[in-house]
Write a structure and sequence with these properties.
The protein is an all-beta fold and about 525 residues long. It folds into four domains: about 5-145, no CATH class; about 165-245, Immunoglobulin-like, CATH 2.60.40; about 250-405, no CATH class; about 415-525, Immunoglobulin-like (Sandwich). The chain is built from no helices and 38 strands. The protein is globular, with a radius of gyration of 26 Å.
């Protein structure tokens, strides 16, 4: 392709994996020799070629598709660090190339010009993506539409991702693997910490670091990281990332599900407002003939990453007909219908799993709604414990928690004792050391591994001790970290960390920062009176 004359074409290189990996390919696939055919939407550009359809565009202002009278959104020069298809609430742009459907992507716009009528007259952009389809694990490339920008710039781009907020005592992945150079393979992608509470960055490879958030004081803390990418041609680039760590004492919006029952199905979902959308729908589908939201009833939905249905989490809770749903404890065995009934009722679902017959308990710590518009929830906090008589679930199986701008009041103070070392394949005990709750006793306790090679097992004993057995294959002198969490009578959390240096295992090998499917244990404690 001419490097300096105006041209229109799209090319992509299929690496088949991380661009640093030795198996990375170098094959360049040209989509078409003819000029791509451009179709424009109010927020997205579709380029059709002989090789398929390529999409690129900014984030829509609201909704997935805007009306015909909405102003056209324009691409801006610069890096878009999180662009995927379909659009998600956390993405800042849209991107897709044939046989990709990126689970994560980025693009940089070098040149974008628009005519007086708002149509795109020229575009030069480079892109990179980790694909979710099986045809290509990783691709990078460029689009040139009537642009004189060179076909393949020898320039590195560091992609650190979007700033985000997590609670203390949670797993964290720093992923810089989307970094790329259009003309040269990358030689190194490295993370360093610049400021804030100390994070363990020892488990890093190929631009990915798996670590965990430390404990912080009320008010939280911020940590700043820098990603540096260097190509084989010697071109380097940097990008900074801010991770905000929130104390369990701080105001927050979040959605959680955990347990082994039918609804949770062993899932462990920990999401904050930066990970999805909270929704109190007015109506939905076959429910159109019902009031849906009433003073006695609330249907509350959380859609992770903007997904419409499959991975959404839903909680429905209603008081007896004629009695408003207010803060307090509720229990029963009625499934919540579309309208309040003869007694308190509840229903829950996640990823398509729900109960037709259930026994449940609920804690409503706060429910502040606009009485004239019940879908407007100013603040709310609901924790639900539900057991199903179907699917093999048990009463203590599934727990769901939904908070919206909730400020915990005197959450648990968790204290544990544990050895500082452990032997691969041999159990150790994490003991409660005087944890306290100020809000009606305990709801439950959880024990979850948040760092290191997955343990062989984690379980609670009758005395409240968490028994952890590191895998026999845990590398010698590597670390395992377990978070011991207590929920009180308002569904509020407190957490303590146990850091174990594991010895006696095989010699440590170079590890890819992969997040294993960690073991976890849940122990119901004193729950609300029935």
């Amino acid at each position: 392709m001419p490097a300096t004359s105006a041209a229109s074409y799209i090319w992509q290189r299929n690496f088949g994996g991380n661009p640093l990996a030795s198996a990375s390919g170098t094959t360049m696939n040209m989509f078409d020799a003819a000029e791509p055919v451009l179709t424009q939407y109010t927020w997205m550009n579709q380029f059709a070629t002989g090789g398929g359809i390529f999409w690129i565009g900014p984030q829509p202002q609201s909704g997935l598709f805007l009306g015909t009278t909405a102003p056209a959104l324009k691409l801006q020069v610069g890096l878009v660090p999180h662009a995927i298809w379909p659009m998600a609430s956390s993405s800042v742009g849209t991107l897709d190339s044939p046989n990709c459907r990126p689970s994560n992507g980025a693009y940089v716009v070098h040149d974008a010009a628009y005519a007086a009528d708002g149509s795109l007259s020229s575009l030069a952009a480079d892109f990179t993506a980790g694909c979710s389809l099986g045809y290509a694990a990783y691709v990078s490339g460029a689009i040139r539409y009537r642009s004189a920008v060179a076909a393949a710039l020898d320039r590195s781009f560091a992609v650190a991702g979007a700033d985000r907020t997590l609670n203390e005592g949670e797993s964290l992945r720093l992923d810089g693997s989307l970094s790329w150079n259009p003309a040269s393979r990358l030689r190194s992608i490295e993370w360093t910490q610049l400021s804030g509470p100390s994070f363990d960055l020892s488990n890093c490879r190929l631009g990915i670091c798996d670590t965990y958030t430390p404990l912080v004081a009320k008010g939280g803390a911020q940590a700043k990281f820098r990603l540096t990418a260097v190509s084989e041609s010697g071109k380097s680039a940097t990008a900074d990332l801010i991770i905000s760590v929130r104390s369990w004492q701080d105001t927050q919006s979040r959605a959680d599900i955990w347990g082994s029952g039918h609804v949770s199905s062993g899932s462990d979902l920990r999401m904050s407002e930066s990970d999805g959308v909270f929704d109190v729908p007015v109506k939905g589908g076959t429910e159109a003939i019902f009031a849906d939201q009433t003073a006695e009833r609330i249907r509350w939905v959380f859609n992770p990453n903007g997904n419409a249905a499959y991975d959404s989490m839903e909680l429905v809770l209603s008081n007896t007909a004629g009695l408003a749903l207010t803060p307090g404890s509720y229990a029963g065995n009625l499934r919540a219908g579309f309208e309040p009934g003869a007694g308190p009722a509840a229903s829950a679902s996640y990823a398509g799993h729900m109960c037709n017959s259930s026994e449940w308990e609920a804690l409503v710590a706060e429910m502040d709604r606009d009485p004239t518009q019940l879908t407007t929830v100013n603040r709310g906090a609901v924790t639900l414990h539900i057991g199903c008589t179907e699917g093999g679930g048990e009463l203590q199986g599934s727990y769901l928690r939904l908070w919206l701008r909730y400020t915990p009041m005197s959450p648990p103070v968790v204290r544990v004792t544990a050895p500082t070392t452990a032997t691969a394949g041999q159990a150790v005990m994490i003991q409660d050391a005087g944890s306290t709750t100020a809000n009606g006793g305990e709801w439950l306790r959880t024990c979850k591994q948040i760092y290191g090679q997955a343990s062989a097992s984690i379980e609670f004993l009758a005395n409240g001790a968490c028994k952890v057995t590191p895998s026999a294959s845990t590398p010698n002198n590597s670390k395992v970290v377990v978070a011991y969490e207590v929920l009180d009578g308002k569904g509020q959390s407190g957490v303590a960390l146990a850091e174990l240096l594991v010895t006696g295992g095989p010699a440590a090998a170079a590890q890819l920062g992969g997040k294993p499917a960690f073991q976890a244990a849940t122990q119901p404690a004193r729950r609300t009176a029935r």
